[in-house]
Queue: 2 jobs
Job 1
Amino acid sequence: MLIRTGDNVEVIAGADRGTQSRVIQVDREKGKALVESVNRVYKHVKRSQQHPQGGRLSKEMPVQLSNVMFVCGSCNSRTRLGARFSDDGAKERFCKKCGASAGQISPAHAGHAKK
Ligand SMILES: [Zn+2]
């Protein structure tokens, strides 16, 4: 599971299909992600201390991660991600289409460095 908070993703299923947006939060246990302005629902809230007016509150609900795909910043297409060790031994994510790095996921480690 290589999607991270802040990633640009495209929704590939459901009502918001085709929407590109940013990941706000990832729930690794449930395999779901909160994506900005995707899967918005109206929550009806009663009058309370916090919401003195009550009424409807628009908020995002988490979407299944299998319904979103990473959008690569280099080749600008939706793609799958792989993980690999770079020359200095750091682990990084990469685009399976163009091979561009999509950011480090763990710091350099001598044991994994290229000799
Ligand atoms: Zn790419």
Note: The pocket of zinc ion is lined by residues 72, 74-75, 79, 95, 97-98, 100 (CB under 6 Å).
Job 2
Amino acid sequence: MRVSKVLVVDDRSTAREGIASLLPACDVAGCLRADANTTLRMAIANGAPFDVVLLDASLAPTAAFVRELVTVGGGVRVLLSTDGEEGAALAVQIGASDVVARPFVAAELAFRVERAASQDLRADKRRPRKSDVLIGTGAWIKELYDRIAMVAATDATVAIFGESGTGKELVARTIHNSSRRHDAPFVVVNCAAIPEALLEDELFGHVRGAFTDATRDRDGLLVAAHTGTLFLDEIGEMPLALQAKLLRVLQSQEFRRIGDDADRQVDVRIITATNRDLDQLVASGAFRQDLFYRINVFPLHLPPLRARPEDVPLLVHHFINKYRVRLGKAIGGIAPAALARFVAYEFPGNVRELENKVHQAMVVAAGPMIVDADVQLPAPGSATSGRSRVDISRPFREVKQEAIDAFEVAYLTDLLRAHHGNLAQAARAAGMDRKNLWSLVERHAIDRTKFKK
Ligand SMILES: Nc1ncnc2c1ncn2[C@@H]1O[C@H](COP(=O)(O)OP(=O)(O)O)[C@@H](O)[C@H]1O
Ligand SMILES: [Mg+2]
């Protein structure tokens, strides 16, 4: 195998020797100052000499610096070394390909250096597949896409937080599909769904004879995910004993099958998800603090759907398109009154619940559109109690229009019910022009006939 050349940029004069002793298989050179000129001169000396630059985070390198280094260094990979937990976020920001924590663990350092050295720069750019499209509007989804793009280009561990149904798994898949690992497996392990006693076997596998039923060697899901991504869903439910083993995987990509007497190595990118408050689990002793730091290097927080009602219409149309094909029903859209009910509802089950409700409505819909009567959602409260909070992150005009629509639907529904669907009578009682009332009822697709006596 080719010897990897490593340039250590660190302002501790002993750093190079220390690292060289940890990387006996590499050719290690040192550079004291993070001054761009010095570093670049060293990086380009004798052609393109370095495979990996190990850069000290405390020197506060910038994205421009890293870009220059990569360009001038002919595709040199930058590995950020850091004392703190915030290192991974910085790595992603500045475009470093990976991060390694100090104090160094020899196996981990060697592994990350070799992996960085063998990374193919050209494979990084890839667009998500169509089925993975994350629907949303406004600033949060733009930021989410930016953060996904940043982290997909690296092997950093990602921790996704959010209530059930907010899209955690979809985000994890999107990261995998946008990463250089996209052709390798994406393996999902739900730590809450697998009985505690079986989880270790599922993840790590066993050797023959490890326990009574172990009649042959069996690889676990970690091996199944080799060169790909392992998605650990509900990580907060992982038993403490397994947490220690997972920590080891994260530190050195090493693990041991049950009953084995030798370690094995894997190359997996780990993405975790949870709807629990990990800080609290750490405080109560149910989750290891060191593991928490390891997985929390690049957190992504997905907001609940009720905090972004502006996404509801888009998602409804997205799922109408999805199920139109599956159900083979020519449903072209949704009436405004029916949509208004979706927008007004709080969706405790988030996008998953919305998806189910759209599906249900399409199953029962008889016409070419989803109408009010097709929608099975708890009745919205009155116009004033329908939504408790006002979302000031969105344009006034939009929010106001939604409030008006919801009010109009509620008012007209009650009005028509009181007058048994009789328009003339209802208009008189409400002090409205009959034609205006008629056009509003039409606009909201309110079915007058259901109020007839
Ligand atoms: N922003 C989104 N755009 C499109 N579909 C979404 C979005 N968020 C969630 N979904 C869909 O909602 C369902 C639940 O999402 P999932 O990722 O399983 O949630 P979680 O893992 O957080 O429980 C899936 O069918 C997913 O495709
Ligand atoms: Mg899930």
Note: Confidence is low (pLDDT under 50) at residues 121-131, 382-387.
